[in-house]
Specification:
Layout lengths: L1 E4 L4 H7 L8 E4 L17 E4 L7 H9 L4 E4 L9 H6 L3 E3 L6 H16 L2 H9 L17 E5 L3 H12 L3 E5 L9 E2 L3 H7 L2 E4 L13 H5 L5 E5 L8 H10 L2 E6 L21 H7 L4 E3 L8 H20 L11
Parallel strand pairs: 1-2, 1-3, 3-4, 4-5, 6-7, 6-9, 7-8, 9-10, 10-11, 11-12
Helix pairs in contact: 1-11, 4-6
């Protein structure tokens, strides 16, 4: 059986290699999956995707024509896959539903602390020999109201961490009620109360641009936003306007609306061609990391193990329900 892993990086390959059965023909592709690279998967029954890949209708039709029957996602999110088209073509789509929610929750707090204590600016100053504290004033987390949008595995862990710092935490999730977390009935109610907003929900048609010009305008002046969910949760143009006007106090982003084709690559030679991202990174009250919240030893190992197990289960039960099928 032939398996092609797209968007493969050395740290993932190192975790995967010992787990792969000897009777699989495995191809590791550095390239992202898209219309230009899909031909490389010809003849592969299984194709494994990362969040930087694009499996739209055009790509899926070519994969199906080449014999692909299983898409094994190395992520919990699946907004980069046209799942309806995949099913019409007879493809199963499986994912890694919980590789390490602790990794993402930890990174959420790390970004928040970097932003509100201005550690990114402090690091730049001391590297230049400037130990002056001017411009580095932060604020305490203790006593602040933090709002968490999305109360799944990651969101609940973010709540715990914020509570440990002394925050009054409120949550909003129209799909679940979580014992021990104060929840509000509407996003507007949450936004009007919080000093800190953490986005930990999946990207769906309903949550796309959940933060836009109108909703950003409902937030407290100088509140800060942390997004470790998906870039499309925020309207980038509206975010820039709110930051520049002072309506928003800061933003800490591990994901970016237009990151596909940009993140996970080294652009030091040619520079960052994306004008919106360049503007964001030029603001002192913005912190950006390149979709690395998941990147811990534990999470990468869990992704590798679950991906291989998903493929093995499908091989043994090709017609049966898959335990980690996308919903």
């Amino acid at each position: 059986m032939k398996v092609v892993f797209y968007s493969m990086r050395p740290y993932e390959q190192q975790a995967l290699q010992p787990l792969l059965p000897d009777d699989w023909t495995v191809i590791f592709e550095w390239a992202h999956l898209d219309a230009q690279t899909v031909a490389r998967a010809s003849g592969a029954e299984v194709v494994s995707l990362f969040v930087s890949d694009q499996a739209d209708e055009t790509v899926l039709n070519q994969l199906a024509a080449g014999g692909t029957r299983l898409l094994a996602l190395r992520s919990a999110g699946f907004d980069h896959v046209d799942v309806a088209t995949a099913r019409q073509l007879g493809m199963e789509v499986v994912r890694v539903p919980a590789y390490s929610p602790h990794a993402v929750a930890d990174h959420t707090l790390a970004l928040l602390l970097m932003l509100i204590r201005r550690l990114h600016l402090a690091q730049d100053k001391v590297r230049r020999g400037d130990f002056c504290l001017q411009g580095l004033m932060g604020f305490d987390l203790n006593g602040k109201t933090a709002g968490v949008v999305g109360l799944g595995r990651i969101g609940r862990l973010v709540v715990q961490r914020l509570q440990a710092f002394g925050c009054n935490v409120i949550g909003f999730d129209p799909h679940v009620q979580v014992e021990g977390i104060q929840q509000v009935d509407s996003l507007s109610e949450l936004l009007s109360q919080c000093d800190i907003l953490s986005l930990n929900c999946p990207l769906t048609p309903q949550t796309r641009h959940v933060l836009n010009r109108d909703t950003l305008g409902q937030m407290r002046p100088h509140a800060v936003v942390v997004n470790t969910g998906r870039g499309g949760l925020i309207d980038t143009q509206a975010l820039l306007a709110a930051l520049r006007s002072g309506q928003l106090g800061g933003a800490a982003l591990d994901v970016y609306e237009f990151e596909r084709g940009l993140f996970f690559e080294d652009h030091r030679t040619e520079g960052v061609a994306d004008g919106l991202l360049a503007q964001l990174m030029g603001l002192a009250n913005v912190v950006v990391t390149g979709h690395q919240a998941f990147l811990t030893q534990e999470a990468v190992a869990n992704i590798a193990r679950t991906t291989v197990e998903n493929i093995q289960y499908w091989l043994a039960h090709p017609q049966g329900p898959q335990p980690n099928a996308v919903p």
